[in-house]
Q: What sequence folds into this?
């Protein structure tokens, strides 16, 4: 392959050309090359092209440690875009992705990847990459060198596994041993990705990418639980080439915009057709698909204005109707009532809310055809509770007897 038979054309020339182009179009950006010690002879050409270089103490005859060096700029906490020299043609686009990420208040963007359909390891969690090391940007500050040394030490001592645990299976993680090829991505998955997820991740996904599997869904669920502000952007050309374009210019659409933004009218109407997809049980827990959609629209509302949500349900059978567990009340009333107590075991919270609301507002309790409680498997009923049912509620009642005017929560 070209990267072995002709490394100069495959790696060095694209880097030099990208450096020159970057100096012309984005002189505010510094292109840093972490240079293996045995490649010191290219320093003059790198400087002439406008690069900044860091001459490392060691050579890198294998993938490691050279592939690890490129993450060191994250220690500064500034905007950092990481790329491979042979992908230097995408550098400007990747820099812009880092800037968009930072403007949106997120700290990390990445492109996950996985062997595609038909390939030997498609669906194998040991070959799933939450982060492609050559397509990543960050604005978070991390002690990269310390994390790398800690990872190597713990692997050597056997304190940290390099296998995926799926049920009773132990599946080796490709690149999970030093200095194997792809160890840099094992480092990103193990030491960087969990920390970045807490700060908010922007996931870039090509519309034509068919390689994603169930592990990608679990990946996204983790990101959203770690930080609900995380987002996904689908980029690139759609599968169909005959998709019509819809121009949006103020002159052509001023009348429409005026009508949309009239007082009392929503700026955006979102229509959702729903069939048993509100909350979906999985091995990782309940996937809150539709609730997460509503939360995202609520955040969007803060930025763009009124949004209308229309839900068409097609005879779903996942709603549980034998309960008074649904509540509709003004937000002000909810706040005055003190909200819902946070119990660690099942039962009693609804009774407390009913009691408190009843003291400040008229309450009606009734069954209404078509209005049903969210169904959930019986096995999940007490999944997140601790201890015996109603234990906290009984404690609340006992405390009320001792201190009638005190709030429990």
A:
């Amino acid at each position: 392959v070209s990267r072995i038979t002709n490394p100069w054309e495959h790696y060095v020339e694209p880097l030099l050309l990208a450096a020159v182009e970057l100096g012309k179009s984005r002189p505010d950006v510094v292109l840093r090359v972490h240079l293996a010690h045995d490649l010191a002879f290219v320093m003059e050409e790198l400087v002439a092209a406008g690069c900044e270089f860091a001459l490392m103490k060691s050579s890198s005859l294998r993938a490691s440690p050279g592939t690890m060096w490129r993450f060191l700029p994250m220690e500064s906490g500034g905007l950092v875009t990481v790329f491979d020299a042979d992908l230097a043609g995408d550098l400007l686009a990747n820099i812009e992705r880092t800037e968009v990420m930072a403007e949106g208040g997120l700290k990390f963007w990445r492109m996950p990847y996985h062997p595609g359909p038909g390939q030997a390891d498609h669906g194998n969690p040991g070959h799933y990459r939450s982060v492609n090391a050559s397509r990543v940007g960050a604005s978070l500050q991390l002690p990269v060198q310390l994390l790398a040394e800690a990872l190597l030490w713990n692997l050597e001592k056997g304190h940290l596994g390099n296998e995926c645990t799926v049920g009773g299976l132990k599946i080796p993680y490709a690149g999970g041993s030093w200095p194997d090829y792809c160890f840099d991505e094992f480092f990103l998955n193990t030491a960087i990705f969990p920390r970045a997820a807490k700060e908010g991740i922007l996931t870039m996904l090509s519309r034509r990418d068919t390689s994603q599997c169930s592990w990608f869904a679990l990946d996204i669920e983790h990101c959203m639980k770690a930080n609900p502000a995380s987002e996904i952007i689908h980029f690139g050309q759609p599968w169909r080439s005959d998709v019509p374009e819809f121009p949006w210019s103020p002159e052509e659409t001023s009348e429409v915009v005026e009508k949309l933004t009239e007082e009392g009218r929503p700026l955006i109407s979102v229509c959702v057709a729903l069939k048993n997809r509100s909350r979906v049980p999985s091995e990782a827990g309940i996937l809150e698909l539709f609730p997460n959609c509503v939360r995202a629209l609520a955040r969007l509302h803060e930025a763009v204005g009124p949004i209308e949500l229309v839900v068409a349900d097609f005879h779903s059978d996942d709603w549980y109707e034998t309960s008074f567990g649904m509540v509709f009340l003004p937000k002000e009333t909810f706040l005055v009532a003190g909200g819902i107590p946070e119990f660690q075991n099942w039962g009693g919270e609804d009774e407390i809310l009913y009691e408190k609301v009843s003291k400040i507002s008229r309450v009606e309790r009734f069954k209404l055809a078509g209005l049903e409680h969210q169904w959930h498997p019986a096995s999940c009923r007490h999944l997140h509770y601790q201890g015996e049912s109603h234990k906290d509620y009984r404690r609340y009642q006992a405390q009320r007897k001792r201190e009638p005017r005190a709030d429990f929560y």
Observations:
- Residues 275 and 316 are 5 Å apart (CA to CA).
- The longest strand covers residues 268-274.
- Residues 404-409 have pLDDT under 50 and may be disordered.
- Residues 7-25 form the longest helix (19 residues).
